[in-house]
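User: Could you walk me through two proteins back to back? I'd like the raw sequence and the structure tokens for each, with a short line separating them so I can tell where one ends and the next begins.

Assistant: Of course. Protein one, sequence then structure:
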Amino acid sequence: MPIFPRISLKPEVCDHLKSIFLNKELLAAVGHQEAESRFQRLLMCLSHPPSYTCVRASTHLAPLEDIRQKLGEELKRQQQQMCSSSPEDVYAQILPHPHIPDVLLLPVDGPRPVQQLSSEVVVGAQCGNAVLRGAHVFAPGIIASPKYMKAGDLVSVFSDTEGKCTRGATSFQGLKVFVGNGVAEMDRSSIFCTDEPKKGIGVRMTEPLYQSPSFDGVLPSLAFLQNLPSVVVGHVLGPRPGERVLDMCAAPGGKTCHIAALMGDQGEVVALDRIRNKIDRIGQNAQMLHLHSIKVYCFNSTQAVSSDPSQDSEGPPFPPESFDRVLLDAPCSGLGQRPNMASTWSLKEICSYQPLQRKLIQAAVRLLRKGGVLVYSTCTVTLAENEEQVAWALRTFPCLTLQPQEPHIGAEGMLGAGLSPEQLRLLQRFSPELNWDQTESAVPLPHRANTDTIGFFIAKFLKH
């Protein structure tokens, strides 16, 4: 049941998206009414969280069933500490994915009938999105609170979807969305009246609108929170022990670590990212997951190909044809992320990624050896960043051909970029709007998980 308004977008961005989802190819195939309906469902489902939490289990460290059992015990302990009256057996609710051997699924309970309180805390849109996926409210996310709020007060938490609330305000009458109730962990004065930004939990959520487990500190080396399509990417890449693999835009390192785990930590995984503090996060994740085959460099991947073939240094730039497999999880407009109640981006920002993605694809093709595999992925829904990039890559690099993907649990590629039906079938587009009407029905969780995802795109190429 939709309980939030559609995602809030700037009018020109909304019109641009509509023109994509009502393109001539698509209209000819499904008709105006169905195309319009899909677009409206997309706007609606983007503001809502998926109906489950996806956990990638570290099966390189322990069997899936052992991790499932430990996770059940840990979450039950968490429930008891929160004095939750929930009678369900947590372990029984943790389900293995039917097709992906290292994924566990946990149902999200919501929307729940939660009564709003008179005492209101307002948080930023990003913080509100995190609360809908099981997080508590951390102090930096709080924008407004009651004038005399003390630690221990019961408060209702609202998300400022348009970013118009003034920091430090005592109330806010603008557009806001209720996300649940909690207990203040700090006084108002300690949040707003300090020189240093306050850290730690500001509001501990006790009655979230969508109930899902908080994974803060829960089995950090065995259970890694990751969206289902992001886990699929690692399997589609198919890395093997002993290979040399490049992850071009690697931060925060979830996919990098998955690649190393799939290789049994045998071989070399090179992770590049151009932002220094993000690079540190990759190293921390690798350490936490006991992975030693990962080498991390702060480097701009568009410049990762060396012009000097005799160069023999360990780090970037690398000689052409240095890698067996390359993952390009490209920087993108991120319009597939869920839940996302609002995007303040301009059309110029939304459309700015295509040239960068093409530079990265060019570098990826040069760095890949003949017979090697390139996987290109994004977490967005536009044609320009997805199917159009595939069409451009196939035209520009005759050495590339599209390959079947395993597992293929998403939909095929979207019409509108001039690709053939055979080519579209080889692509994998996770399109939550296609089945949005069915997510509330009696479809069992493991099967619902494949359709009720974030918006995501995957293409797999072989270099001849």
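----
Protein two, same layout:
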Amino acid sequence: MAKSEVFNDPVAAKVMELKKELQKLVKAIAVDDSDDFSVEALDKAHRVLCLLRDSKIKRSLSLKLNESPATVPEEFRCPLSKQLMRDPVIIASGQTYDRPFIQKWLKAGNRTCPRTQQVLSHTLLTPNHLIREMISQWCKNNGIEMPDPIQVSEDDAITEADRERFISLLSKMSSSISDQKDSARELRMLTKRMPSFRALFGETTEAIPKLISPLSPDKFKEGTNAELQEDIVTALLNLSIHDNNKKLVAETPTVIPILMGALKSGTIQTRSNAAAALFTLSALDSNKSLLGKWGALKPLIDLLDQGHELAMKDAASAIFNLCITQENKVIAVRDGIVKVILKKITDRMLVDELVTILAMFSNHPKAVEEMIEFEAVPCLFSIIRDTSSERTKENCIVILHTICVSDRTQRKEMREEELTYGTISHLGQHGTARAKRKANAILDRLNKAINFTHTA
């Protein structure tokens, strides 16, 4: 998955882009010796100058707001930019961020909360009207004009030179292996840095097939250059970040089989990026079903089982997203997800993430049977005792409650745990609201079982 990056001031970055564009336009006008130079170039230069002026004003306001960092309450600062939030939004973890900065984080392929590292169940952004109103009131009280939200464009303007370069690079994907490698590497870099190049792939149905042509199934069997494979797979990941491309990428013939094949072969970076691409594509509900039908869960589970640290997190994230749907839960259980997760958390690998996934399966009867078969109870209790994460403790006790209800034979071990460590009663008193309910429900069942035995 794309890793976290330094979040620079977007206004300053825009100013630099505008300056570069202005230099190009001025140079184009200056080198034209005739009096009949392009009026269009002059118009463009005028527009860029106006944008540069507006950006400079915004930059000055930004600097004013950050001259005295100590005066701005911490809760009004975005955890990513450390600046006063203009458009505060809430993400799935419950944390609040400034919209453009969390959008940049998510568009880079990240699917965790930057502050808590919790895997996000969805990427919807909900306006935090309360915090925005508090910021507005604070600005009024301090004689500062409430700043407008920072507008971060999804797609930069496409120049004719960009289009020509794009077409040229794609044409070389059917040329020599040397040309393929050079073009794939450049397309990987361009789709990473420039949203405009991601958007270009959505303008024609031929673009993605040309990109992946060196990895088409008939050529794949002959063996593929590892670097070429990695660059193409990573370019697919970059394309998938663009919301308008998700459906197009997933429904392009051979893309999903290529990504599934990349999960099994190539460099570990290729496998990791293939898993991240499947995760990003699965953000679209229609793609969840499509990926499940193609059989993407099995190679993802196998990749998780292999235990490569770099790829495990991406595989886990993709599995989590896909298994939000009931039909994919059935497939994942059939493909051995329960055994693999229990093996990993027993070895204390990705415990928080994998226990979250395991909790998703606590309403699936077959999955619960396998949890009992593979001795989940002692493993989950040991995690509760070891972890400091309240969310992980909650998920563990949710699973244990389901097991307690489903199989009476497991209650003896739970009773022994309580007598030895007091684990359940401690959660019943000090856990999250949900953890307290589940822990106390288990204690009620254990006490009723004891009373029934004594009565009998």
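Residues 215 and 223 are 9 Å apart (CA to CA).

Let me know if you want the two compared in more detail.
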